[in-house]
Design a protein that fits this description.
- The complex is a heterodimer of chains A (about 170) and B (about 300).
- With about 170 residues, chain A is α/β, with parallel strands linked by helices.
- Chain A has one domain (about 5-75, about 85-175): Rossmann fold (3-Layer(aba) Sandwich), CATH 3.40.50.
- In chain A, about 25% of the residues lie in helices and about 30% in strands.
- In chain B, the strands form two sheets. In chain B, strands 7-6-5-8-9 form a five-stranded parallel sheet. Chain B has a four-stranded parallel sheet with strand order 2-1-3-4, sandwiched between helices.
- Chain B has helices at about 15-30, 60-70, 90-100, 115-120, 135-150, 170-180, 210-215, 235-245, 250, 275, 285-305, and strands spanning about 45-50, 75-80, 105-110, 125-130, 160, 185-190, 205, 220, 260.
- In chain B, helix 1 (about 15-30) packs across helix 5 (about 135-150) and helix 5 crosses helix 6 (about 170-180).
- Chain B has two domains: about 15-135 and about 290-305, Aspartate/ornithine carbamoyltransferase (Rossmann fold), CATH 3.40.50.1370; about 135-285, 3-Layer(aba) Sandwich (Rossmann fold).
- Chain B is an alpha/beta fold and about 300 residues long.
- The chains are: A alpha/beta (about 170), B alpha/beta (about 300).
- The interface between A and B is medium-sized, with 28 and 32 residues.
């Protein structure tokens, strides 16, 4: 019988994002260089929200982009073709500090694909990684700079992040 | 999101959902073509054979560029310079390509069903780049993409296909695609080239041009395929132009926002007035741009394996 546990509710997600925004502001002295890039699905909405928080902290608009990474994945012939989302990069990435935003950090392969995809747009000064949930089980030497919540999981468990209509993070056990 | 086919052989066997999946995927690939770096590594390490047994310029170039932009390795094979001249059968050529471990074969052939034959014979993924007068699926997909991008929908639109329907694989694939997506298709042209039997494909046949064009949201023109006609199907080009060519007088009686499309190559002054071909309402060059995105999307989707859609 599958079991689903809510591990973060809307309020917890909101507080985690607010804290991450402050950590991003603390880490990056030159605010004008920072741009957020969300990875769909999920990361794009989180990036937009982080952008709002940072705007309040820095008192100026923060550029936010959307980066689809499916064309750069390393498992394309091992699974059905993924859904491809439009990429929107409304700023020059050259010389910027790019904060990649994803909902869940798991194997690290999405992050690797994202870094590759980002290189097609130019050469950022730095790339940092912000995730709402880090569930472990990395397959690559990648770690997040900003984490909303660390959630130890079993490999066959599933983490679903819902943002948009009803915000929650759900852990599903088989 | 639904795609689990090995090959793209025809539109007839696709579901509306599968067609929509290609169109949605193509939207993202169109954006790739607008970047400074237009290449993505999705097909890195894959080998694509372009087996063009029947001459083709635009489709072959479009496929080639699509493959290059996906980082695939490419082998080009054309009828003139190949072993077909030396008497090798399609099956033997295909088995040779398989022996080279080709992952994809894009085939254009004058025999209807040639791609289906390859798909049954080989494990490589097969894409039909036009087979005889049967189908030209990527053309219909790029046309549907172009219409949807401009009109924001396809369902409920009146699409008139005007010209040589009988010998046109483009017409057949477009009739399948557009009717599956809910458009109302009208066919028009000389009665020898537009047999009433096409009504079995859920479309309307009329021989009055003005009536066919009056309510059209999209006017799709076709070239006379002289190379496929075994006998004279109408008195002459001049008469065809005066009876069925799209000229300014006929265009004036259409809806002001009716779009004009043509799969190319166009014959200026025959099926289309030169000025109309160059006007704002003509999407002919946009079709070419979109063809690249659609072919990238098809290659990308066929590259997918059997596993689940979900990603970690």
């Amino acid at each position: 019988m599958p079991e689903a546990i809510v591990i973060m509710d809307a309020s917890a997600i909101g507080r985690a994002l607010a804290r991450i925004a402050h950590e991003i502001a603390e880490r990056n002295e030159v605010s004008a260089e920072v741009a957020l890039v969300g990875i769909p699905v999920g990361g794009d909405i989180l990036a937009a929200r982080l952008g709002k928080f940072l705007e309040d902290i820095w008192k100026h608009p923060v550029p936010v982009g959307i980066l689809d990474v499916s064309m750069h994945r390393d498992d394309l012939d091992r699974r059905a073709a993924p859904k491809v989302y439009p990429t929107v990069m409304p700023f020059d990435v050259n010389g910027k500090t790019i904060v990649l935003v994803d909902d869940v950090l798991f194997s690290g392969r999405t992050t690797r694909a994202a870094m590759d995809a980002l290189n097609d747009f130019g050469r950022p000064k730095k790339i940092q990684l912000a995730v709402l949930v880090d569930r472990g089980h990395r397959e690559l030497p990648i770690r997040a700079d900003f984490v909303g919540k660390n959630v130890p999981t079993a490999a066959d468990e599933k983490i679903s992040v819902h943002v948009g209509t009803k915000d929650e993070v759900v852990l599903e056990r088989k | 999101m639904s795609w689990n086919k090995k090959d793209l052989l025809d539109i007839e066997s696709l579901t509306p959902g599968e067609i929509t999946t290609v169109l949605d995927t193509a939207r993202a690939f169109k954006a790739v073509g607008e970047r400074a770096i237009k290449k993505v590594p999705a097909l890195r390490g894959k080998t694509v054979v372009n087996l063009f047994v029947e001459p083709s310029t635009r489709t072959r170039i479009s496929f080639e560029l699509a493959e290059q932009r996906l980082s695939a390795d490419i082998i080009n094979f054309s009828a003139e310079a190949s072993s077909f001249k030396k008497g090798e059968t399609l099956k033997d050529t295909a088995l040779n390509l398989q022996a080279l471990n080709a992952d994809f074969i894009v085939i254009r052939h004058s025999a209807s069903g040639a791609p289906h034959f390859l798909a049954r014979t080989l494990s490589a993924r097969i894409i039909n780049g036009g087979d005889g007068a049967h189908e030209h699926p990527t053309q219909a997909l790029l046309d549907a993409f172009t219409i949807r991008e401009r009109k924001r929908k396809i369902e409920g639109l009146n699409v008139t296909i005007l010209g040589d329907i009988l010998y046109s694989r483009v017409a057949r694939s477009n009739i399948w695609a557009l009717t599956k997506l809910g458009a109302k298709v009208t066919l028009c042209g000389p009665s020898t080239l537009v047999p009433k039997t096409f009504e079995q494909m859920d479309c309307r046949v009329t021989y009055s041009v003005d009536e066919a064009l009056r309510e059209a949201d999209v006017i799709y023109l076709l070239r006379i395929q002289h190379e496929r006609q075994r006998k004279t199907m109408f008195p002459g080009i001049g008469e065809y132009t005066s009876l069925f060519g799209l000229n300014k007088a006929r265009l004036a009686k259409t809806k002001p926002d009716a779009l004009i499309m043509h799969p190319g190559p166009i014959n200026r002054g025959v099926e289309i007035d030169s000025e109309i071909a160059d006007s704002d309402r003509s999407l002919i060059l946009e079709q070419v741009t979109n063809g690249l995105a659609v072919r990238m999307a098809v290659l990308f989707l066929l590259n997918g394996g059997k596993g689940p859609h979900e990603v970690a």
